[in-house]
Amino acid sequence: MTDYLQRILRARVYDVARETPLDYAPNLSRRLSNSIWLKREDLQPVFSFKLRGAYNRMAQLSEAELQRGVIASSAGNHAQGVALSASRLGCRAVIVMPSTTPEVKVRAVKSLGGEVVLHGETYDECSAEARRRCEAEELTFIHPFDDPEVIAGQGTIGLEIMRQCDKPPTAIYLAVGGGGLISGVAAYVKALWPEVEVIGVEPEDAATMTRSLEAGERVELSQVGLFADGVAVRQVGQETFRLAQRHVDRMVTVDTDAICAAIKDVFEDTRSILEPAGALAVAGLKRDVADRELREESLVAVACGANMNFDRLRFISERAELGEEREAMLAVEIPEAPGSLRSLCNELASRSLTEFSYRMSEGQRAQIFIGIQVRGEQDRISLVNSLTSRGFPCHDLSQNEFAVVHLRHMVGGRLPASARPAQRNYQELLYRFEFPERPGALMSFVSALHPEWSISIFHYRNHGSDTGRIVVGVLVPNEDMAGWNRFLEKLGYPCWDETENLAYSLFL
User: Does 177 share its domain with 107?
Assistant: First the structure.
């Protein structure tokens, strides 16, 4: 503990980094009935805290090491931190980035003087290439998190928070990827104010620190979600895990919708747009306040980055309302008769609609897909019950991933009567898939399908993330179901069987 306290106190970060403000969030504080403070690391020169650790590590290099140069593997914020640090220190910086890295991030690293090498499609592949080049060219590897000087550099955030607070806060919330940020801040805070809680936040689909602390050893995840790409790490570091075991009080996990809602919350208070990983701490703070019913406490969340791809905003704005439970997605049944649509609209006259999809169909009943603004969970439940009681049977699809991601953007309609499975020797199967978003990936998926399987439904939408999402309806002969299962196993992409999904049966 003393060792890290000394490292943090003597860390060299302010040659390139700035002391960021601790801003009060009035709207969020009022809504949560607590005093919420945002540590604005999104205001660093590279829009992320990563600059602190990278520079502190590189400032310790000898003159000979600086002359040979440094190398790092990163798809984003660490890359920019290393590149800017190298520029200030006058040394060469080679940055190995996955070939799938968005062009905006590649340009940012090049503009800071970094030599970009695109290799592989995943962080693991580019990290292995960086290690190989490190040995071959005698460069110094700058680890993004598992290095004492990197950890100490990130720990200066804790130093600033405690200096900027009138009194020690009740808790500090931090995003966790490899663990460099939380271990550095926790080492400083716990050395001086052990009563302050240090709480880590991870996405539910990338909870490697949570799983590791529960198991008492480092756990390596087979795969991680990529929405919050800044924390998409399969295994935390050895040193960061050791420090987390000693100093971290608790971990909180949140889903994608909660992260999107947190991005909107910060925008409403600051007019700044955080990246998903940058808003992770705010999402975790909100979850913890709700779970523990915290009131009148002083809580700090570190807004750790704002390197957002602009094309992600469409997806985030859609999901933010669901994350805040301000929008409901409903399937409402009406009689297929004159005047029934008008009657439903009269029932919803006082509501703000976000979506309304109707198509005349066979039979005496029709299904309408509606997006509608609500004031929370209880208001949503009340609306569903009210519509049902007034003769409009209603299904709540707000938590139905297939409906939220795909159905709301699809053309409705049912399979032609002449091709329905009941009259043929096959089944229509509906599956959702996720795959790495890269050029040609979508067509590769289609090409992998058996040529004798007819595609009856297909929906893909670019969400601006590293993961592509599609839904496919396939007409598979009954005798070839084993072949379909072999296809799924060989494909290797995460997939979900939606054949029994209520939204599918109602609309498609």
Answer: no
